[in-house]
Protein: 4-aminobutyrate aminotransferase
Organism: Aspergillus chevalieri
Amino acid sequence: MSALRPGLKLRSFARLPAARTISTTPLRAAQPYFSNEPSGPTVSTAIPGPNNKKAAAELNEVFDVRSLNMLTDYTKSIGNYISDLDGNTLLDVYAQIASIPVGYNNPHLEKVATSPEMITSLINRPALGNFPSAEWANILKTGVLKVAPKGLNQVYTAMAGSDANEIAYKAAFMYRRQLERGGPEADFSEQELESTMVNQQPGSPQLSILSFKSAFHGRLFGSLSTTRSKAIHKLDIPAFDWPQATFPSLKYPLEEHAQENAQEEQRCLQEVERLIKEYHNPVAAVMVEPIQSEGGDNHASPAFFQGLRDITKRTNVLFIVDEVQTGVGATGKFWAHDHWNLDTPPDMVTFSKKAQTAGYYYGNPALRPNKPYRQFNTWMGDPSRALIFRGIIEEIERLGLVENTAATGAYLYAGLERLSKQYPQHFQNLRGKGQGTFIAWDSPKRDEILAKAKNVGVNIGGSGQSAVRLRPMLIFQNHHADILLERLEQVIKML
Ligand SMILES: Cc1ncc(COP(=O)(O)O)c(C=O)c1O
């Protein structure tokens, strides 16, 4: 029996040929991926409206609502459009903090969700390290690993972005100590076994992970020590003594500041190398986001990341790329680090958000700890979420959604460039050219823009101190871009 609601249909055409080439001409004629998506936003009450206010008050009795953005009606949200409880429908370019890839109520995902395979995996959740099903290998090979970054062919699955990062850090530390000990066969010493039980060296070594200023890698204990975006995330939580390097601060437009920016990147690379060589707690891995996302949409060039890879190779430090926010198509390539053309792949790549599952990819078998139960949890991920990721991958491939995102991003960027010329004070440092729809800019009135955007029917997020960040879904098309551009101009005129 299908649980698909009548009328909720995804277009059956295989691909959108026009959207597969990068074009900056409007594709008004392009068919929407969701045939029943609204033709535009509808705002009929103030936001929040009376129903939302009432529901928020009720929720507040049992759940902290101080971070509430809007109470959502997920039964009515479709494709790129999010609905609230007052009948308002907004074009959503925030997409659950960049984590919805193929649209609200995607019919293919509904099919996956109601399949017998899904039901079995939901009601019989395995402790994956101990009792995986016979299908687990196939689920991984036809899903998570089908899109593994070049050069990486194995995965540890996890529950969320922070979790993925933390288990990657653990893998880095265990790998490092294994090398120091003389390889996987070398036994732990009595001293190590005893000292680790009282959190002391050498069993609990003072190793570190190097991350960057303004980085965001999550909020669990270990990941939080590499997060450097906002103090409020970190306050009161004990942290490791780990080094931070400066992330390049590029000037825009890039074409006009090429030399300065190259110098800035060189300066940051020198700092990384110096910290690796001199920091008192030896660095086991360098952790970096391809585009610092929560920290304000800070970009660096492929040359910078190539430089990082070179330094990590030279200094025998692992190179971990955090693709939690950038991964799964948003930058117009499946993985953002595909833009870098690295000679040697990263040692580990972490993922979550649009994958709807999480984990880290790796290739070197020595990154598996030398004994079982060293990298272990009850669940170690979730097959039902891995099935959803496989469904997402099927949709991305069927509809050519990475190509769509590259093309729509170019179109949207051109429109934003026009707006930035017209309203330079509200569109500063426009960035993300050639990076799909992963676009941002700064505005001194950022918070006002985000609030007013809702009232004209657009749900947008911010990042860092002053950036407006766009994180539309992969099904965002040129006609959505047109609506967004028009509404943004409307907001600017209201300021
Ligand atoms: C780059 C990056 N890494 C890690 C995380 C943490 O992921 P999660 O919130 O799923 O733990 C985030 C979340 O925004 C992120 O953007």
User: Anything to note?
Assistant: Residues 160-162, 165, 216-218, 289, 293-294, 322, 324-325, 352 surround pyridoxal-5'-phosphate (CB under 6 Å).
